[in-house]
Amino acid sequence: MTQQIKSIADYHKAYQDSVTDPESFWAKQAESFTWKQKWDRVLEWNFEEPRVKWFEGGKLNITENCIDRHLADKADQVAILWEPNDPNQPNRSLTYQQLHDEVCKTANALKAHGVEKGDRVCFYMPMVPELAIGVLACARIGAVHSVVFAGFSASALADRIKDAACKMVICSDYNSRGPKFIPVKKVVDDALAMGCDSVETVLVHRNSNEPLDWNPAIDRWWHEEVDHQAAVCPAATMDAEDMLFILYTSGSTGKPKGVVHTCGGYMVFAEYSFRNVFQYETGDIYWCTADIGWITGHSYIVYGPLLAGATTLMFEGVPTYPDASRFWQVCQKHGVAQFYTAPTAIRALMAFGDQFVDSFDLDTLKVIGSVGEPINLEAWNWYNEKVGRKRVPIIDTWWQTETGGMMITPLPGITDTKPTYASYPLPGVQLELVDNEGRVIEGNDVEGLLCITFPWPSMLRTTYGDHERCRQTYFSTFPGKYFTGDGARRDEEGRYRIIGRVDDVINVSGHRMGTAEVENAINQHENVVESAVVGYPHDIKGQGIYAYVITQHPVADQDAFIREIKAVVTQVIGPIAKPDVIQVVSGLPKTRSGKIMRRILRKVASGDSSNLGDTSTLLNPEIVDELLKGAKP
Length: 633
Ligand code: WTA
Known about the structure:
Largest sheet: 8 strands, mixed
Radius of gyration: 24 Å
Structural class: alpha/beta
Number of strands: 30
Shape: globular
Strand content: 15-25%
Strand order of the largest sheet: 12-11-8-6-7-14-15-23
Number of helices: 20
Mean pLDDT: 97
Low-confidence stretches: none
Bound molecules: 5'-O-[(S)-ethoxy(hydroxy)phosphoryl]adenosine
């Protein structure tokens, strides 16, 4: 077990130790795991290239740490507890022994299909246990998993398969999500039709009894390939710095990039952060409502909890099905102790009314968490009163796909909580606020751009196939520092509050999106000449998507045009990227150098026409009036 922080004194000491002597601090945490061979060196780094290596020379397999090492005392404890979309269907559960056997069988099936160490395997699946099993099966044999959220379109999926040259795609036939029944394999078929030449096999998990189009050349049923395999599979020996997974995420420019995480450091930090931030105790039922298609699901549904020997609940459905009390029904039914969700879900449920939560017994809750976007005061208060019953501490956890694990968060029952504040950095996390010129902002009660100045074990190592892009994106804005892209405030007592992205990334219902990505999709409509997308405050989603569009020909039927734009975006990216508001304009405010002045677009989109600032440097100042007149509420 890694170190247990149990008091504020423990926290201060751990933080101090992690800064004074990071190598000893993390070596001590790492020693609690099963290594096949100990590391030669704890840390080697520079943020210029960047090059970061943790536990170099160490050899391990993360699945031995997630599963095998628990078999001595937890073989019969439930590892994964699965709650289906339909509350009338039975739960499924896998004990650590059963998980071991299923992971080994699946790993053997992957091997039988020629998947080898280092090969990439893409997942496009709903939230069924087979997704977690499949991911772990990859890790078992050293294959690299790339999970793509099953809400992305065929074209977005194809981009990701091609970028990583995946050898295999693992999917389900269909997906039951709320009242919807969604064809999943059909999307994979469509993606493969876009030329994913690297794919040799599509392994299909049967999730329904519906008929399915089948390509006998490459399609294989999961049950036919997996069920007869041996339940033993030796765990591949991995270097600490071997790739564990790729996860695509959006940035301010270009296509989504594949964030790369490696085995050793990620393992150590995922367990350490899970254990301490949730204060997990044996026997607790832990539930994170995220999807495994996002980093939160990787670190805090699969790896963190299993590394800690926890029981992790996996939910197939949505918060509002069959009605808006589903989360609390599930908490009550399973006696959930730690509950971790996103502000957008809280706001949505809040809007349905208190009657959906008030009648439930939530006495087993010990910690309630929030992640993915800033939590506004109203939502924080509702969460605190209605779910936490003013008894359960809220942990507002700030982190990113790139950080691999939680960076800033209260420790429940240990550090105080302050509404809307993610509060304090975890041990090992060295923060700095800087101004636009990179000057360090000292002291308290200040605001600035959030940077991390020292490596932490679970940080990204590169962006897949393009290291220069990694350097450019994260390490070049403020040389020598990792720049998060977020603005933050530090209060009088040193707590951090995350204000939001300062780059062209928007956060819609906790889904991270690049405005350029959405613009590229909109521009594929034949009548669009140019577009500009910004975020605007949205009551439920946190941010909504506002698109300004210049057309080639006048638009006769506005409604039809808007439907078409939404359809194009759905097709290119997926429904999560559909603009909420589309305004047809004759021009965009541009500087003399041709740069779009997004500041003005954001103001107009948020319905704020005051203080538009200096528009005299615009090439076309007259456009501002048109934007304001045509602005949609
Ligand atoms: C935002 C999700 C405020 C932030 C784990 C970050 C947050 C981006 C919080 C990363 C929080 C995440 N408070 N903002 N507690 N957590 N964010 O990569 O802007 O999907 O940069 O990782 O979400 O999103 P990602």
